[in-house]
Write a structure and sequence with these properties.
Blueprint lengths: L3 E14 L2 E14 L3 E5 L6 H8 L8 E9 L2 E2 L5 H7 L4 E4 L13 H10 L6 H14 L5 H6 L7 H13 L5 E5 L7 H14 L5 E5 L3 H7 L2 E6 L2 E7 H6 L4 H8 L38 H5 L5 E4 L2 E3 L4 H4 L1
Parallel strand pairs: 3-8, 3-9, 6-7, 7-8
Antiparallel strand pairs: 1-2, 1-4, 4-5, 9-10, 10-12, 11-12
Helix pairs in contact: 3-4, 4-6
The structure holds adenosine-5'-triphosphate and magnesium ion.
Length: 322
């Protein structure tokens, strides 16, 4: 197996609220390997975005990383001072967010912003930077790249803005791209184009951490998957193994909820809800929703452990299900 580009170790992210401390991420560990696309999946509110934001110290205050390490190229990013982090952000690690408007400045032309993102990080003339930006916009499937470059973000559609942002994240050739629901604002065709591009990046020595709700995209694009539930990783496996034989009943529920993967006419959905991060239940956090739960599940929290080569799961029944 190749070496890790990024290792997250025992990460915890908390938000103080009026009702107490909210544990959005609660002891998460996983690695992204060189040249792989790792999918991070799980229902809404499980802590996927909070995990992603903590990597580059972008958790919005008063939220904070209360525990853990984020090792990238030999250094703990959480221990780095802001100027060093800024050097890494955008050049070595890029982030693609859901909402493009938060990432683009309304005051500068698209071309100026794209070119700056290149000239800031490498020795390249303004003219070459603009040419490269135009090339990347074309790769993103934006026709009229010239007009887009000389315009301002507000003159673009949401989907165009999103593609500008994705181009900016990819064109510096980062070692790691963190993409959090990157194509939610885009229609299916453009979305497919962008996923194809992301998967090509892998061959250009870029690793991708892809957060998505869409297990179809995971199947198409990812090498491995980490499944998150209630602030924890509950399963980790190569994509084909996970789809073939999910070890955690939560993963199985997620897979059954994908329309194309099930023969049932009625769409399945996991009963019940993700527990509140203010008040996780004792034992396994999935036990009240789990069709296989037995006494031990409410009493003892299963640790995430290795079940087979490359496969981890946090379920008391995982060995039997293997
Ligand atoms: N700024 C914040 N202040 C307070 N609580 C927050 C904040 N951001 C996130 N949370 C809480 O932390 C938990 C994890 O949120 P997070 O955004 O990481 O979920 P997610 O898995 O990305 O969900 P989604 O799939 O909906 O994007 C949720 O309970 C959420 O309400
Ligand atoms: Mg999110």
């Amino acid at each position: 197996m190749s070496e890790p580009v990024l290792s997250i170790e025992n990460l915890a992210v908390t938000f103080p609220t009026e009702e107490g401390e909210l544990a959005a991420v609660d002891g998460v560990s996983f690695s992204v390997m060189r040249n792989e696309v790792l999918g991070l999946v799980g229902e809404s509110g499980c802590g996927k975005s909070a995990t992603a934001l903590s990597i580059l110290s972008l958790v919005p205050k008063p939220g904070r990383v209360s525990q853990g390490r984020v090792i990238f190229e030999g250094a703990d990013l959480l221990a780095l001072a802001e100027p060093r982090l800024r050097e890494i952000r955008g050049r070595r690690i890029s982030m693609i967010f859901q909402d493009p408007m938060t990432a683009l400045s309304p005051l500068l032309s698209v071309g100026a912003q794209m070119a700056e993102c290149l000239t800031l990080h490498e020795k390249i003339s303004q003219k070459d930077a603009l040419a490269k930006s135009r090339e990347w916009l074309a790769r993103m499937g934006i026709p009229e790249a010239g007009r887009v470059l000389s315009g301002f973000p507000f003159e673009l559609s949401g989907g165009q803005q999103q593609r500008v942002m994705i181009a900016m994240a990819l064109m510096t050739g980062p070692s790691l791209v963190i993409a959090d629901e990157p194509t939610t604002a885009l229609d299916a065709t453009v979305s497919a184009q962008i996923f194809e591009l992301l998967s090509k990046m892998r061959g250009e020595s870029t690793s991708v951490l892809l957060i998505t709700h869409d297990l179809g995209v995971v199947w198409e694009l990812c090498d491995r998957v980490a499944v998150m539930y209630a602030g924890k990783i509950v399963e980790e496996a190569p994509v084909s193994a996970l789809f073939e034989r999910p070890l955690h009943p939560y993963t199985e529920g997620l897979l059954k909820s994908v329309p194309v993967l099930t023969e049932e006419r009625e769409l399945y959905s996991i009963e019940g809800q993700v527990p509140s991060p203010l008040d996780y239940p004792p034992g396994c956090r999935f036990n009240d929703r789990c069709p296989l739960a037995f006494d031990r599940c409410a009493a003892e929290e299963p640790a995430l452990r290795q079940i087979a080569d490359g496969r981890k799961a946090a379920c008391h029944l995982a060995d039997k299900r293997m």
